[in-house]
């Protein structure tokens, strides 16, 4: 059984639309767990009134993404899940999305399967998977190297975000859960999937199963737009900062081959320190 785990904090309209899209799926043999980390905007009441079939777990506002997702995963595994999907609430699933994701997962039962992320409205590919190249400090984005006629099917990657990702139970059995102590919000999904890949589990981006997203809705995008020194500080050191230097350092020290480490650290810091102002 597939369990979908969605961490939420406020933004109840996003959550409502996401759950409505899941209700319309052509394949319905899955269950949904919402981890509501102390929402104050009526999310709890909306879930109880409009989505009684959804299992709701509650936090007190201090879980952040990683502890929230772990809470939901533990419950899913306790209830007998053989696959867990991590999903954000600011997404919309087309009608056959679960069917297409599960088809790939059933064909490759030990693999992690991530969804192609497409901007809602424009249809533009927002994220199509990537591969880390430690030696030259770059992540090769598949959409930059794949010919147009190959933008379909499954493509190998080295890591993947938690925004529409199927994870088999055996992965958790072997590598554990997401690192909620070391990486409480950003980077935990990349670190977990790279760890899984290093343990022998292949990761694919499924170009046949586009998931609709709202890229501008992320907390880090809001920080990047403000272009103030306080936002810059939060970008580099805040728990919601996509350029958080601590998170980058922790991930790099864990996984970067030692011979590439000095250059990778220096270039990574440079891009984070300067990139905020020029992106």
From TrEMBL:
SUPFAM superfamilies: Nucleotide-diphospho-sugar transferases
UniProt keyword Secreted present: no
Top-level lineage group: Bacteria
Key words of the record: Plasmid
Residue intervals of the Glycosyltransferase 2-like domain: 4-173
Protein name (record): Glycosyltransferase 2-like domain-containing protein
Source species of the chain: Persicobacter psychrovividus
């Amino acid at each position: 059984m597939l369990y979908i785990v969605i961490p939420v904090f406020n933004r109840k309209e996003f959550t409502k639309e996401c759950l409505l899209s899941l209700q319309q799926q052509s394949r319905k043999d899955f269950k949904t767990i919402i981890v509501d980390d102390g929402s104050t905007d009526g999310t709890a009441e909306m879930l109880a009134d409009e989505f009684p079939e959804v299992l709701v777990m509650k936090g007190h506002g201090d879980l952040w993404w990683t502890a929230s997702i772990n809470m939901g995963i533990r419950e899913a595994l306790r209830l007998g899940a053989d696959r867990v999907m991590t999903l954000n609430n600011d997404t919309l699933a087309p009608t056959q999305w679960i069917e297409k994701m599960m088809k790939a997962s059933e064909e490759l039962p030990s693999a992690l399967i991530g969804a192609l992320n497409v901007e809602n409205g424009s249809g533009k590919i927002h994220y199509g998977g990537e591969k880390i190249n430690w030696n030259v400090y770059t992540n090769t984005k598949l959409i930059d190297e794949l010919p147009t006629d190959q933008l379909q099917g499954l493509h190998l990657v080295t890591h993947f975000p938690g925004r529409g990702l199927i994870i088999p139970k055996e992965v958790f059995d072997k590598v554990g859960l997401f690192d909620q102590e070391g990486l409480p919000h950003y980077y935990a999904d990349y670190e977990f999937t790279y760890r899984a890949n290093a343990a022998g589990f292949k990761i694919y981006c499924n170009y046949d199963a586009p998931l609709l997203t709202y890229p501008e809705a992320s907390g880090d995008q809001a920080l990047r737009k403000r272009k103030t020194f306080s936002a810059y500080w939060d970008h580099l050191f805040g728990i919601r900062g996509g350029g958080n230097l601590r998170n980058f350092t922790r991930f790099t020290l864990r996984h970067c081959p030692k011979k590439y480490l000095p250059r990778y650290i220096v270039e990574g810091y440079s891009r984070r320190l300067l990139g905020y102002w020029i992106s």
